[in-house]
Amino acid sequence: MEAIATRSIAGGALALSLLIGGWSGSRLTLDLADAVDVALAKRVDPDEAQRKALEREASYQDSEAYYQTHIDEAVARFELSAPSRQRLLEPNTFYHVASPGDLRTIEPGATLREAGLEIGVKIEEIKVKKRGVTTRTKHTLATLANVGELPLAYFLDMRSQTGSCQVRAIGRYNTMVLRPGERAEISVCSGEHAVEIVDLRIMEVTELGALWVSKVPPQAVGHDELGARSHFAGEGVPMCAEIPAVAFASRIDAGEVEWEDIVDFYSRHDCEHYRWWPGYRRISAPLERLPAMP
Q1: What are all long-range contacts of 124-128, with beta carbons under 8 Å and residues at least 24 apart?
Q2: Does residue 154 belong to any structural domain of this protein?
Q3: 210-245: string of b/e by CB count within 10 Å (b at 16+)?
Q4: Which among 179, 166, 109, 168 is positioned nearest to 143, based on CA atoms?
Q5: Residue 139 included in any domain
Q6: Over the stretch 9-23, which tens digit does the pLDDT of each residue have?
Q7: pLDDT at 125 over 80
Q8: Which domain of life is it from (predicted)?
Q9: Cα separation of 164 and 196, whole Å?
Q10: What's the whole-number mean pLDDT along residues 199-224?
Q11: How many domains would you assign to the chain?
């Protein structure tokens, strides 16, 4: 009798265990199904995820925090004086000294000084190599010197007073910017000539602006091939290879934009990370933020 009772109790316990186990198994199945549904609901389409990631990246690249990292990097790497954010927001002083309708002429031995830039003309005998033959000949040279206290971005177009020149020598100087005390020597023409300044534009920039403008290919702001080949941005200063120099120069030639519009932009933006756009013009009132956005 006792054995029968024991078996009955055991059987009841087994039934209860199976009942509970069955309920638990069903509950586990339901929980798992709910979890799968939630996971599927939260799953993001890959294209949508990529779009959102790119939006976040673009938003950061347009941010003032990201802009500041380029200032800090350049200041540390090239040991520059860090400009205040307020100075970078302010207009740059600009001078248009000479133009095709208002030429300036400099005789050999004479100088012209404007806006901190001194230009002289001298005659020297130099070596010229042409078609494998080296000769010595008299040459008209223009000497440039920044005699002011601020870096000067400049554009200089000049010619011999007698007209076009067939022989010019390649130099090595910064075609884009001269820092205080810095000098350059530029070949004008073989022979002895007075020099006509056809176009001269000068813009005062910061130390940081001088570095950033130096990285811009000279062709992008209207310099000829000789000026571009002579350009030396400075030791260890990389040139920006991604700038569409031909497209920018074409806009200048077409009168759609001026040298000072592009240079003003790059005096505030590193061309490795930002690109000038056609709507940007040299500012005459302080900007509200940097980087400047279309």
Answers
A1: 126/169, 128/167, 128/169, 128/190
A2: yes
A3: bbbbbbbbbbbbbbeebbeebbebeeeeeebeebeb
A4: 109
A5: yes
A6: 344 443 434 334 443
A7: yes
A8: Bacteria
A9: 11
A10: 97
A11: 1
Q: Tokens 């310099």 belong to which residue? A: 223
Give residue 133's pLDDT band: very low, low, confident or very high (50, 70, 90): confident
Task: Please list, in sequence order, all residues whose beta carbon lies within 8 angstroms of the beta carbon of residue 142, skipping any fewer than 6 positions away.
Answer: 106, 119, 120, 121, 156, 158, 185, 186, 188, 195
Token pair belonging to 253: 């030639």
Residues in the chain: 294
Q: At what angle do helices 64-78 and 207-214 cross, to 10 degrees?
A: 90
Residue 89 identity: L
Q: Which residue in 171, 195, 191 sits closest to 183, CA to CA?
A: 171
In whole angstroms, give the CA distance from residue 150 to residue 115: 10
Is there a domain that residue 230 lies in? yes
> Which amino acid is it at 273?
H
Six token digits for residue 99 = 């133009």
Residue 7 lies inside a defined structural domain of this protein: no
The Cα–Cα gap between 183 and 257 comes to: 29
**Domain extent at residue 122:** 59-266
| Cα distance between residue 212 and residue 206, in whole Å | 10
Confidence of residue 276 (pLDDT cuts 50, 70, 90): very high
DSSP single-letter state for residue 222 = T
142: left (phi over 0), alpha (psi -120 to 50) or beta: beta
Closest CA to 239 of 265, 266, 217, 256: 217
